[in-house]
Design a protein that fits this description.
mainly alpha; single chain; globular
């Protein structure tokens, strides 16, 4: 279970870096597909929010019951989730503004799109900074407490982790687990995906690489 959570955390780290890098390139008037950027940013915002909502609603109550001494640590993690949510909402508004600009009847020029990306960039960077600091604090807590969780609870939490994740962006989930190298917990995560997702992995990886190319991040 810990390895699976590490895979999810790696997806979030890499996803925020992907979005921030693409916004930075667009802000410097480099070639970036705005539709791909908006879609990836919205997916990332939703993915991060859903993950820490699952932790607050399902994981933490189990851990608090099993390990009362960890209540204060878990409370700190929940407060950090709330702070992160504020930045995610701010970034969401700025991404919506970029989408509206790109989709307006009077087509925005490169400078307009660059200005919108520049406006969104501080929030994207802030989300990345908050997320990195939060995960650095959270991961040792999970490593310490998860061994106390009964197998029946692990099964329930694993199902919540998989089924509670956003249904959009499977290509991003698959791709970010493998690019630039396979993350810790990848085999366990893949084994818990529905069979159609596992069967479609080569197609999803192709779509992921097309997306990173549109974002200006292709290697």
């Amino acid at each position: 279970m810990y390895d699976e959570l590490m895979a999810v955390h790696a997806i979030m780290r890499r996803g925020t870096a992907l979005v921030t890098g693409s916004l930075d390139r667009l802000a410097h008037e480099k070639s970036v597909g705005v539709k791909a950027l908006v879609g990836t940013a919205r997916w990332m915002i939703q993915f991060v929010h859903h993950h820490h909502t699952i932790e607050d609603d399902l994981f933490w109550p189990v851990l608090r019951e099993l390990c009362p001494a960890a209540v204060d640590e878990l409370a700190v993690l929940t407060r950090e989730h709330l702070v992160l949510d504020v930045e995610l909402r701010r970034l969401s508004r700025e991404v919506d503004a970029l989408a509206a600009l790109d989709g307006s009847r009077d087509r925005a020029d490169r400078a307009d799109r660059a200005a919108a990306a520049q406006a969104a960039l501080p929030s994207a960077r802030r989300v990345g900074e908050l997320l990195l600091a939060h995960l650095a604090l959270e991961e040792p807590v999970l490593r310490k407490l998860l061994p106390y969780v009964a197998d029946t609870d692990i099964v329930r939490l694993r199902k919540a982790l998989v089924h509670g994740a956003p249904r959009t962006g499977p290509h991003l989930v698959i791709g970010l687990m493998e690019d630039p190298d396979p993350v810790q917990g990848r085999p366990d995560m893949l084994s818990n995906f529905p069979p159609p997702i596992r069967w479609a992995r080569p197609l999803l990886l192709n779509r992921y690489h097309a997306t990173t190319q549109a974002l200006g991040a292709a290697r």
